[in-house]
Amino acid sequence: ADVSAPPAAAPRDWEALQAHIASCEVCGLHAGRSQAVFGTGAVQSPEWMVVGEAPGEHDDRVGLPFQGKPGLLLQAMLASIGVLPESAVFFTNLIKCRPLGNRTPKPEEIAACLPYLQRQIALLKPRRILVLGKLAAQALLGSDADLEQLRGRVHHIRSETGEDIALVATYHPASLLLRPQHKADAWQDLNLARSIAP
Ligand code: URA
User: Fold this and answer.
1) CA of 66 to the centre of ligand 1 (A)
2) How far apart are CA 68 and CA 1, in angstroms?
3) Averaged over 135-141, what is the pLDDT?
4) Could you tell me the CATH number of the domain that includes residue 172?
5) Model confidence over 57-74: pLDDT tens digits?
6) 90 pairs with which residues across the strands?
7) Residue 2 belongs to a domain
8) Does residue 51 lie in a domain region?
9) Which residues line the pocket of ligand 1, CB cutoff 6 A?
10) N or C, where is the chain less crowded by C-beta within 10 Å?
11) What is the count of structural domains for the chain?
12) Domain membership flag for residue 8
């Protein structure tokens, strides 16, 4: 898959980008979606941008990210470090359309959708990005390292418009539901992200 060829030039305007993604048919996932899930939350240089993997069944139906069980755990974890629902957070995913059966997104689907996430980052200019799970972390960091290597420290990525943006990767809440022994590490990662200076 050619990551350097963005789908028909993603718009540089936030509303136009949202409309563009809503009607995107670049990869096969559009065939199985109810709707694309663009993301939701604070859009003026938010304190946090939280990036998950892909919409689940509820998310696809409602049109918003993190509506299911992993979302509840995510909200509880954020609340435990003082990030409350009214805080400035924008939630989105690496992949905007639900993979049927919640299967893992394919490399070509990630390549097709990553330019949208990159554009969202450039337009939002979040203070910090919290990335959930290996796939989204690898995509944003351009790495093939395991999550264990990527979590536990602050990375810096450059947005399309040249801003330096701090990024912390941690376990995906769906994986924490299966492996609660990683919750302490995830909590450390969230605290690390919170401690990033302005
Ligand atoms: N819902 C989302 O929106 N993203 C995930 O990664 C998981 C569930």
Assistant:
1) 5
2) 31
3) 98
4) 3.40.470.10
5) 999 999 999 999 999 999
6) 41, 49
7) no
8) yes
9) 52-56, 59, 65-66, 68, 70-71, 93, 132, 174
10) C
11) 1
12) no
